[in-house]
Specification:
single chain; alpha/beta; 9-stranded parallel β-sheet; globular
Length: 375
């Protein structure tokens, strides 16, 4: 690749592969799959998305506006807490409004009469191991537990929303569903739809689609009147492209070599530090820390002033050199939506590799983008 600046590259072929698979899964399970902007919101790709799906999900006024103005459809919207000044604008851009608490419902439901209204419920069960991502952890701020619901729901409540997965398989959903039904099935006759949230990684290799199909067949038999919605984010953009970076310097301290890059983990790959997880680096092998001083082994360091802006260690086939490309695989979901401009570090461009092999630059970032954030 001749481009000398860092860049996220969305590969159209892989994006369409995921979209086609998700459309097929939706049809096979009698469910609707909608795109969650919290994981992917690159609106210049929406014309492709609209060939496969009909709706999106938002969690803020800006995301709801993106759904309405750029995707062309009103959003399924959930927020931990709506604010008075934004609520009417959110309603204007939403087909569905889900409230996180009964107090939020009481405060705002009369202003959401144009929407299908839902409540977020908490089944008090989740297999998400990282507490930062576990919405059912003790003391969670998400959702209403069954003991707090009235026996008779208010007449304007149409649905339940339940999110308790993270990059999960169908087997996890099967176990979780037992808890959801145990806690909340007494109210199912009073609602019209149920949204099982995100974290269903149906596009991951090895995901048991046939199991999901069986689970949903049984669910539909038990509750034939309920419309089922899934709103994954990662599944749509899973393995749809890399982040291409470059080595700008190599430093050595006590035998540990760090290749400093023109990207940053804290700015451009924050989940690597938050989750945490080690990304896959093309042409390199992740090794244990005790091997950090061995030949052709490098920590990868970001170009920010944060001391912990590094990960390691990776062994390469040959010594790294200044200017060499470092390619982080699968860097489209939960990256472009979470990046920041800490330190004013150059933000990676965003490009799309089309089916014909041509690379289109969708967005290039410069000084004005950094400056205007504080304008």
């Amino acid at each position: 690749m001749e481009n000398s600046t860092p860049i996220y590259i969305i590969e159209e072929a892989n994006l369409r592969r995921n979209l086609a698979l998700i459309k097929d899964v939706a049809e096979r399970t009698g469910s609707e799959f909608i795109l969650a902007f919290k994981a992917f919101a690159l609106w210049k790709t929406f014309p492709i998305f609209r060939e496969y799906i009909q709706s999106t999900t938002a969690s803020s006024l800006s995301e709801a506006m993106l759904a309405y103005h750029e995707f062309g459809k009103k959003a399924h919207t959930f927020s931990p807490a709506y604010t008075d000044g934004e609520f009417d604008d959110i309603v204007a851009c939403s087909s569905h409004i889900t409230f996180n608490s009964l107090s939020q419902y009481e405060r705002f439901h009369h202003r959401a009469s144009s929407c299908s209204i839902g409540l977020r419920v908490n089944p008090e069960y989740s297999e998400v191991g990282t507490m930062l991502y576990n919405p059912c952890a003790p003391g969670t701020r998400f959702g209403i537990t069954a003991d707090k619901l009235p026996k008779e729901l208010p007449s304007d409540i149409d649905g339940f929303h339940c999110h308790c997965h993270c990059e999960s398989g169908a087997d996890v959903f099967e176990r979780t569903l037992r808890h959801i039904e145990e806690k909340f099935s007494p109210w199912f006759s009073q609602i019209k739809w149920i949204n099982f949230g995100g974290g269903h990684l149906v596009t991951r290799k090895g995901y048991d689609i046939e199991l999901l199909e069986r689970i949903m067949k049984g669910f539909h038999q038990r509750y034939p009147h309920l419309k089922v919605i899934f709103e994954p984010g990662s599944a749509f953009a899973w393995q749809t492209g890399p982040l291409v970076a470059h080595v700008v310097d190599i430093v050595n301290d006590r035998g540990i070599k760090t290749a400093i890059l023109d990207v940053s983990f804290t700015c451009h790959m924050p989940d690597c530090l938050e989750m945490p997880y080690h990304p896959e680096v093309r042409g390199a092998e992740l090794v244990d820390l005790e091997e950090a001083t061995k030949e052709n082994t490098y920590r990868l360091g970001g170009n920010s002033c944060l001391s912990g802006d590094f990960m390691g260690s990776w062994r390469f086939k040959n010594p790294l050199v200044i200017g060499q490309e470092i390619i982080f695989e699968d860097m489209i979901h939960y990256t472009t939506v979470k990046t920041n401009m800490f330190n004013g570090i150059s933000h990676p461009s965003i490009g799309m590799l089309h089916m014909d092999g041509k690379l289109e630059i969708l967005r290039h970032f410069g000084y004005e983008d950094y400056r205007n954030r504080m304008d």
